[in-house]
Amino acid sequence: xxxxxxxxxxxxxxxxxxxxxxxxxxxxxxxxxxxxxxxxxxxxxxxxxxxxxxxxxxxxxxxxxxxxxxxxxxxxxxxxxxxxxxxxxxxxxxxxxxxxxxxxxxxxxxxxxxxxxxxxxxxxxxxxxxxxxxxxxxxxxxxxxxxxxxxxxxxxxxxxxxxxxxxxxxxxxxxxxxxxxxxxxxxxxxxxxxxxxxxxxxxxxxxxxxxxxxxxxxxxxxxxxxxxxxxxxxxxxxxxxxxxxxxxxxxxxxxxxxxxxxxxxxxxxxxxxxxxxxxxxxxxxxxxxxxxxxxxxxxxxxxxxxxxxxxxxxxxxxxxxxxxxxxxxxxxxxxxxxxxxxxxxxxxxxxxxxxxxxxxxxxxxxxxxxxxxxxxxxxxxxxxxxxxxxxxxxxxxxxxxxxxxxxxxxxxxxxxxxxxxxxxxxx
Length: 427
What we know:
The protein is mostly helical and 427 residues long. It has helices at residues 12-44, 47-63, 65-74, 77-101, 106-134, 140-168, 171-190, 210-223, 225-246, 248-255, 260-284, 290-309, 316-344, 350-379, 381-399, 403-406, 408-418. Helix 12 (290-309) packs antiparallel against helix 13 (316-344). The chain is globular.
């Protein structure tokens, strides 16, 4: 029998039952992702190939994400998450078979990465949108901090466990770990009743079309001036930063002459930073004015990226320290903006708004990856990383001079009050 939210005075039991199931799934996915990317790096040694794999992971978010958001807002979110977990589990099972049979090829990796991303564009926003209905508004920032802490733990454990798994068991067995953890996530969802929001009727009382509801998501974001500007900043920052993270295996192999253990150390260092930053956000919550947290975090992230870019080849420890610094800062940007969106956007709109923002911010990453590989092969990774840090630092500092960005919270509260009276979009 499913545990219902209304049948319990304690929201923590149903929410953390699902949350715990997702932890297992994410651990398995992190292990499998590390093993897969290192296999690809070791086999090809090409920045273009790695950039192409990252490009395929982002493409579904850009082109299909907004449509997925409409489906999430129109459908049973629990079923969406179960189907998404089942789909990605089957993909991992197929991957395990390919490695076991010795028929694995580079193009198979591209298919798998695309398929996994396709599942994530439904699962992630459905879980995020459900959180605002399962968790009291006053606890959303704390939960956001916990999610960032979890991301840090996964960033630390995933590469470390992935590197250990590669040493101890064959690749097909590594992929079966992901299958097993996906089943645990599905089991946790079966045990819990996930709430769905009431839908806002159209002007004539009839169910609106998917196209009209998609336009509502874009309309909501564009009417929030501060968020629209910050989203524009995020798009340009993503254009610069995406190659830095997607080509990290080559940075380790070419600049620091390392292998899988060194890559695991660098990624785990970022995970430790995320863990620390997430805990700090959970306890402190950031500045009272959230815009200060967002903009100062963006500027400090630029400093951290710059430090990574200038790390001497003979001082791998400096790169590790820079990676820890990056991890500490990220929760104060990602966690703060996520909690703000959850607390201020109407529940029946959240699937669309989350996927639209993800789609727009990922669009520039997609464009960046389309050219990142050849550029990195030509001018070098360090030049790209340093340029990324400079852009991030300057945009964070520039934001303090923009009144709309500094007044994001006030705009958000006004949006929350006015949505109930908002006239539905006409087709």
